[in-house]
Specification:
The protein has about 325 residues and is α/β, with parallel strands linked by helices. Helix 1 links the parallel strand 1 and strand 2.
């Protein structure tokens, strides 16, 4: 098997592409999958290939941007190992396959194709597709990633090795905070690796970590250490801890005290649990803007659904019992 690294941990833009690639190469990885849009790299495909060759790295994929944007960036000469997709693109997927790209379908929790069976259903319609399995997303969606490997034998383009902790819950707005370095979560990664060996898999496994809770360099090296313990990579070098590249919250300009409290509630108000998150948002608005009543709703056009999620009620003593109940439910504004 070959081991690569996915660059999402550096954020939506790689401010220092060369430094990031140096980290990936120094850690012993053999390939790199970019989690940024191609135009965020601020170089063309020829220069990118040159940078990768200098570091003996293979271009694995691009996972951000439209399929057309990624195809246009690659042109007729640059062919990554695969191109990440989350669904079938009726306009450009056939063209990509015709041009020689391998399309790798990635089941993604809270998306249209989230379960392994849904991915197989789509592959049955489009047998040209391969599978990009993600150990954490499969588990969060309710699939066993080890069994997914066995079932997908012969169809796997690559496997994202991703770990996850349930301490933030599985709600759509909080689950991603649980992604963690390999070996620190509850995903049985060793069983997945054993299943890959059992089916004779010799392709790519890709370490992926979305959250830079520490220096991204340290996280990249710590994930490499996990693969080193499994004898897939050499032991990586040690580096000093640094906050360089760490993503932090920053607000422009000076905030008034009530505005600062509002931003704090808005960002951190749901820390005690997903059931209180939207109520906390309603309370933040209620305190910032003089109001009789605040309600927070979520809307999903794709599912034709709108739902009440949080309220900050002001109930007049003149309202009757039924009206008070409706007011609490957000049906009277």
């Amino acid at each position: 098997m070959h081991v690569g690294f996915e660059t999402t941990i550096w954020g939506n833009r790689l401010d220092d592409l060369r430094a990031a690639l140096d980290v990936v190469a120094a850690a012993g990885y053999e390939g790199v999958e970019f989690g940024q849009r191609p135009d965020a790299l601020r170089i063309d495909s020829k220069e990118l290939q040159s940078l990768l060759r200098e570091r003996k790295l293979r271009l694995l994929s691009f996972s951000a941007g439209t399929l057309r944007e990624r195809m246009d960036f690659c042109g007729d000469e640059c062919r990554p190992e695969y191109l990440y997709i989350e669904d079938w693109d009726a306009e450009f997927a056939p063209l990509a396959i015709k041009k020689g790209f391998t399309l790798a379908l990635h089941p993604l929790v809270f998306s249209r194709v989230r379960r392994l069976q849904e991915a197989f259903d789509l592959i049955e319609e489009h047998p040209e597709l391969r599978l990009l399995l993600d150990t954490a997303h499969l588990m969060i969606a309710g699939d066993d990633p080890t069994e997914a490997v066995r079932r997908a034998a012969g169809r796997i383009a690559a496997v994202h090795f991703k770990d996850w902790s349930p301490k933030f819950g599985r709600a759509c707005h909080r689950f991603a905070r649980g992604f963690t370095e390999l070996g620190e979560g509850i995903v049985d990664l060793r069983s997945v690796l054993q299943a890959l060996r059992e089916i004779g898999y010799t392709g790519w496994v890709v370490a992926e970590l979305d959250n830079a809770y520490k220096d991204p360099r340290l996280s990249a090296l710590n994930c490499a250490k996990w693969f080193a313990r499994e004898r897939l990579l050499p032991e990586p070098p040690a580096i000093e801890r640094s906050d360089a590249g760490r993503r932090t919250w920053a607000f422009p300009g000076e905030l008034k005290p009530d505005e600062a409290r509002f931003m704090e509630r808005l960002i951190f108000g749901g820390a005690s649990g997903s059931n209180t998150f939207y109520d906390s948002i309603a309370a933040a608005f209620y305190e910032l803007i003089p109001s009789h009543f605040v309600s927070v709703w979520t809307c999903s056009p794709a599912q034709d659904h709108m739902g009440l999620r949080g309220v900050r009620p002001f109930v007049s003593p003149d309202l009757g019992p039924t009206q008070k109940q409706l007011h609490r439910l957000g049906w009277m504004v």
